[in-house]
Design brief:
The chain is of the alpha+beta class. The chain is built from 13 helices and 23 strands. It binds one RNA strand through strand 6, strand 7, helix 3, strand 18 and strand 22.
RNA sequence: UCCGCGAUAGCUCAACGGUAGAGCAGCCGGCUGUUAACCGGCGGGUUCCUAGUUCGAAUCUAGGUCGCGGAGCCA
C-alpha cells in the first residue's frame, strides 16, 4: 500500500508528467518524475489516497509492469476528441439527460464543465447495477464512469464512452431538481444562481469569463505591465465617483456620539471608511514608480441603479502608464480590446458558437467587425456637430457643453459610424479634476470608448501632472487639495505625464457573448435589494 | 430614484366579472443506436400579499412586495 503525497501533471491531452511522493512508511518516500504518455500509468489517485499501486511497486523493485486495465482520469473535453478513441478512461461529472433503449442499454449525456458539449455514455444492460441505478439516473446526478472511448456510429458526436462501470455519487431527485431538460428563462435561473452554472449558457459564460481574465493578465504581462493590488477598503471619502458603501465596526444600534453626531474616531480605522470605487489614484502612485501597471479587482458602487448594465459589485481593470499621453492611451485601449476578442474567439470557439446560435446571432459579425477595423477617433466637439447635423430629434438636447446621453452614444456607434468609436477632449466642466486640461482651457484629455450594443465600455484620460493646475481643478469642483496630499505628492516629486483607463469586466463579457443582462455574466450578482447566495 | 409592464401548476403561458386550462418536466406504460427522442395514461393550484367593490373576483379598485424593461448615475 502506498500513500500518495503530491501529484503534478501537465496540460490534459499531452503527455502527463507525474511527480509523486509515495512513502511506504514515514520518511521512506520516493519521488517519481518523468514524462509518461497516457496509458503507461495505471494510476487513478488523489493526494492523500492510500491504495495499492502495482506500477509504482514495479518501479521500486525493478519489475516489469503488470498487465491490468489502464484507466486515465480525464475530462469530458478530452474524450470528445477523436484522438481519444481506444483509451480506457475514468470520467466524473453530472448527468444532463438519460435515454433508455429497449435494446437493453441506456445513453447518458455526461457533462463535467470542462467544455460546452457533453459526452455520450453507452451504459450496457449487463452492468450489475443497471436496473437498480443506471435506469434511475436523473438530470443533475453525479456519477463516476469507467469505460473505453469509441468512435460513435451515430451522428451528433465524434466519440462516445462504452461504460464498464457506472457509479452513482449523488442522486438528484427529478421531482425536486429545478433544472429540467428544457430551456429556462435567465430570469428564473437568477433565482437559482447556485445551480445555474450547470446550464449550457452559464457554463459557457464562466469559461469565457475565465479566458478573458487570463487574456487581460497575458496582455499586460507581455507588454511589461505589473499587476498591482490596490486596496479594497479606502478611508478617503473623496474619490469623487459615485456613492460609497460604508465599512464600519461600530454598533449600528448605539454608535458612539460626539455633539449628537456619530464619532468615527472610535471606529475601526479611526475615521469613516468605505469600499473602493476605483483603484486609479493608488494605481497612479505605482505607475509613477514602476512605469506601467494595472489593477484588476472588485469595485463597489452604492448607487441605486436598476439596469441590465449596472452592478453594486463588479470587476474592473485599470491600467495606468507613466510617460503615456492620450494618443498612447487610445492605442493601448484599442489593442487591448482586440486582444481580448481574438483570444476568446480562438480559445472559446465552442462556447462562442453556442452564443452565436442560442443567444445573439450577431455576435460573430459584431466581433469580427471590431477586430478588422481601426477604432475611430472623434473629438467631443466633432461628435456634437454630427449629432446636431443628424436631423434626429433627441429626448435630451444636444449642445456643446452638455453631457452625451445614452441615445447619443448609441447613435454614434451603432448608426452613424457602425463601429467602435473613441470620443475624446470633453468639456472640462463634465469631467473629474484629475483629467489633464488642454491648451484651449475649455476641454480635458478624456476619452470614452463606445462599442455597438453596450455603449461605453472604457473610460479614461491623460492625467493632470501639473501641480498648480491640478489644485485649481480640485477647488473648481469643490474639493479640498489638503485631503489629497499624498496624491499631490506625485506631482510635487518627479511628476511625469501619465494616462490610464478603466474597463468594466462584466460589460466586456456582455459585449463578447451577446448576453443582454449584466446579472447573467457574473456568478452571484449584487444589485440594489439583492445580495442572495 | 423616475416612467412603463408584469406576478396563475416545478418551468413557460392561457383563461378579458360566472366550475382555473395547455405545452414542457415529473411519475407509470409502450417503442426506439438514442441524442431538446417519440406515443399513450396519471398526479399536480393559498391565481404574490392586504383591504375594498360585487350575488359572485385570477379578472375591477387602492395600498404593498418582488421581478423585468426604459431613463438617470456610471464601468
Amino acid at each position: 500500500m502506498i500513500k500518495v503525497d503530491t501529484i503534478g501533471s501537465s496540460q490534459q491531452g499531452s503527455p502527463t508528467r507525474l511527480v509523486m511522493h509515495a512513502g511506504r512508511e514515514g520518511r521512506d518516500s520516493l519521488q517519481l518524475c518523468g514524462h509518461l504518455a497516457y496509458g503507461q500509468w495505471p494510476l487513478v489517485v488523489t493526494p492523500g489516497a492510500v491504495q495499492s499501486c502495482p506500477a509504482l511497486a514495479a518501479r521500486q523493485t525493478g519489475q516489469t509492469q503488470p498487465e491490468e486495465p489502464i484507466m486515465d482520469k480525464v475530462s469530458v473535453s478530452d474524450v470528445r476528441r477523436a484522438e481519444a478513441v481506444g483509451r480506457q478512461v475514468r470520467l466524473q461529472g453530472w448527468v444532463r439527460t438519460r435515454r433508455d433503449s429497449k435494446g437493453g442499454f441506456s445513453f447518458i449525456e455526461l457533462n463535467d464543465g470542462s467544455c460546452q458539449g457533453n459526452v455520450q455514455i453507452v451504459a450496457p444492460g449487463e452492468l450489475p447495477n443497471y436496473e437498480a441505478v443506471v435506469k434511475h439516473l436523473h438530470t443533475g446526478a453525479s456519477v463516476v464512469v469507467d469505460g473505453e472511448v469509441k468512435a460513435s456510429p451515430a451522428k451528433g458526436q465524434a466519440t462516445e464512452v462504452h461504460a464498464t462501470n457506472v457509479e452513482l455519487l449523488g442522486d438528484s431527485p427529478a421531482e425536486a431538481y429545478p433544472l429540467q431538460k428544457k430551456g429556462h428563462t435567465f430570469e428564473f435561473l437568477r433565482t437559482i444562481a447556485h445551480l445555474r452554472p450547470r446550464t449550457n449558457t452559464f457554463g459557457a459564460v464562466a469559461r469565457v469569463r475565465h479566458r478573458v481574465s487570463k487574456s487581460i493578465h497575458d496582455f499586460f504581462h507581455e507588454q511589461g505591465f505589473f499587476y498591482v493590488h490596490t486596496p479594497i477598503i479606502t478611508a478617503s471619502d473623496c474619490e469623487g465617483a459615485g456613492a460609497l458603501f460604508r465599512v464600519s465596526t461600530l454598533d449600528p444600534e448605539a454608535p458612539p456620539k460626539v455633539d449628537g453626531k456619530v464619532d468615527f474616531a472610535h471606529d475601526f480605522f479611526h475615521k469613516p471608511a468605505y469600499l473602493t470605487v476605483s483603484g486609479q489614484l493608488q494605481g497612479e502612485a505605482f505607475a509613477c514608480a514602476l512605469g506601467k501597471i494595472y489593477t484588476f479587482g472588485p469595485t463597489f458602487r452604492a448607487e441605486n441603479s436598476n439596469t441590465p448594465r449596472h452592478l453594486a459589485e463588479f470587476w474592473m481593470i485599470e491600467p495606468e502608464m507613466a510617460f503615456f499621453d492620450l494618443t498612447d492611451n487610445m492605442a493601448l485601449a484599442e489593442s487591448f480590446l482586440k486582444r481580448i476578442i481574438s483570444d476568446a474567439l480562438r480559445d472559446c470557439a465552442e462556447d462562442m458558437k453556442f452564443f452565436a446560435e442560442r443567444v445573439d446571432k450577431e455576435v460573430f459579425t459584431r466581433l469580427e467587425n471590431v477586430l478588422s477595423n481601426p477604432f475611430l477617433r472623434v473629438s467631443y466637439t466633432e461628435a456634437v456637430d454630427i449629432l446636431l447635423k443628424s436631423g434626429k430629434t433627441w429626448e435630451y438636447p444636444v449642445a456643446w457643453g452638455n453631457d452625451l446621453q445614452s441615445e447619443h452614444e448609441r447613435f454614434l456607434t451603432e448608426q452613424h459610424f457602425k463601429s467602435p468609436v473613441i470620443l475624446y477632449d470633453y468639456p472640462r466642466t463634465l469631467k473629474p479634476f484629475y483629467m489633464r486640461v488642454n491648451d484651449d482651457g475649455k476641454t480635458v484629455r478624456a476619452m470614452d470608448v463606445l462599442v455597438p450594443g453596450v455603449g461605453e465600455i472604457i473610460g479614461g484620460s491623460q492625467r493632470e501632472e501639473r501641480l498648480d493646475i491640478l489644485e485649481g481643478r480640485m477647488r473648481e469642483q469643490g474639493l479640498h487639495p489638503e485631503a489629497y496630499n499624498w496624491y499631490l505628492d506625485l506631482r510635487r516629486y518627479g511628476t511625469v505625464p501619465h494616462a490610464g483607463f478603466g474597463l468594466g469586466l462584466e460589460r466586456t463579457i456582455l459585449f463578447l457573448t451577446g448576453m443582454a443582462n449584466i446579472r447573467d455574466v457574473i456568478p452571484f450578482p449584487r444589485t440594489p435589494g439583492s445580495a442572495e447566495f
